[in-house]
């Protein structure tokens, strides 16, 4: 008889563990490199490359099916990510820390993307009924967002306080990554003992058939109707936002003499990592409510407007350079709320595109193109900012949102899609 586990013992913690490496790789790395004196061009270019594992993760998903169980992959990737966090803490004082930490972030990015593949599949095996899966979907989202708030908010705030007390950013971030490593490795040990062992969680024995099915599934995605328009929408919907997000932290942290707002790392963790992320979550919830009420076809263009028009607050901030922290927090909350609100439409559009016989695989492909749409613009954002200055760069980022409006007019969406 297979031992049953209470889902509350593992669903929240696995969801939280999905968010931690992503936050470390895609968010904390940018703030850390800025604190350690890396130029905007370099930090934007190299950290944008870290999106690549999430771009191509659908390509190696069959490996997770072929070798070992999803339970084993989940625990193993947590061990690799925890070791990577510890290694970052140990290398920050090295003379060539930038190169070595980038290698370690790459390792964590690939392990995190693989962990996503394995753990998403494990949820469906560990919670075998649709009723259970539906009951815990909100729990998964909440604990993933909690990891974002704890990382981008709490840990950045802690790093800022340690910088104030020690005057050594490398030491401060070493402590932060050491704490993350200890906590994450503790989660890994916990999951080794508490994750259930579903009877259907086993390696795929028909390897040749699996690869043939994978190729056919992948090819069927590109045979979908209006696929060129679909891909253009996926790549261009966040063209402006991809550039703005990559430069948000450097702008907020740069001294006023360089055109930034000169926030301390602690203040950044509070206003952007905590208040901003909370506004992002609220915006996503509100966007989901709106699209379920009116349908995606009617709601898409208003949601595109609400997502992109608030980007203008960065033009205001870069022009006025206000020093009043509550005003800065309010502006960032408005922008992040709009981003979360409009992103809900984007997520539902991917659900619509993926719907069909291979919805899980096709949704993964959509998310790969979504990540590519963030990676490519993000790579050049630092170079552009250094040549344009913050004010003109943010004006350019706002202009870059125009393709999203055009593509929202071009895509075809059934009138009732998304409505309850």
UniProtKB/TrEMBL annotation:
InterPro entries: AmpG_permease/AT-1 (IPR004752), BT1 (IPR039309), MFS_trans_sf (IPR036259). Belongs to the major facilitator superfamily. Folate-biopterin transporter (TC 2.A.71) family. It comes from Duganella lactea. It is a multi-pass membrane protein. This is MFS transporter. SUPFAM superfamilies: MFS general substrate transporter. Keywords: Membrane, Transmembrane, Transmembrane helix, Transport. The chain crosses the membrane at residues 43-60, 72-90, 142-160, 172-193, 270-291, 303-321, 327-351, 363-384, 390-409. PANTHER family: MAJOR FACILITATOR SUPERFAMILY DOMAIN-CONTAINING PROTEIN 3, SOLUTE CARRIER FAMILY 33 ACETYL-COA TRANSPORTER -RELATED. It is found in: Membrane. It holds the Pfam family BT1.
